[in-house]
Design goal:
mainly alpha; elongated; 7 helices
Length: 179
Amino acid sequence: MRFASLTAALVAGGFLLATVAPAAAQAQGGEQKPPEQAQGEQKPAEQPQGEPKAVDQATAERQAQEKALAEYSEAAAKLSSSAGAAECVWTGRRIVSLLWRDDMDTARRYIDLYDRFGCSSEHLKLAFRCVIQEGPLDPKAADRLASRVHGCWIAPDEPTTASSQATTGSAIKGGTIPN
């Protein structure tokens, strides 16, 4: 009886190995093409589609870089205090955005960095006040928040858009606090 169960176990193991071994060999490359052939077939199909995307992506990256440099230059030209330094502009705008989105913990960490750079804490307060006073924004519109923060960073005492003035005016007249 012991011999019969041992034989049954060996037969079952043999069937298992017989089915697994060919599948493993096929998965390892039994019917695959050589790498040169596979690459040669894929390159012509990918290149016409990939080139315009790569060019568009490179152009978009270059435009974003030029825009960022222009914003830093504008801040340096318009702000006489340390608030116009590139590191102060970068960290300050980030702090204002984080505060607007109620991410206090991250904002606090950036404030430590902002202070370490010797940036103007008064300008940070003014910029955040400007963003708040312009009223609520669509939470899904990150580009509008970035634009508002930049406008308030450059000129915290001036409203950035006419539509935000209307929003602020109606909020004050109605007695509600903007979100």
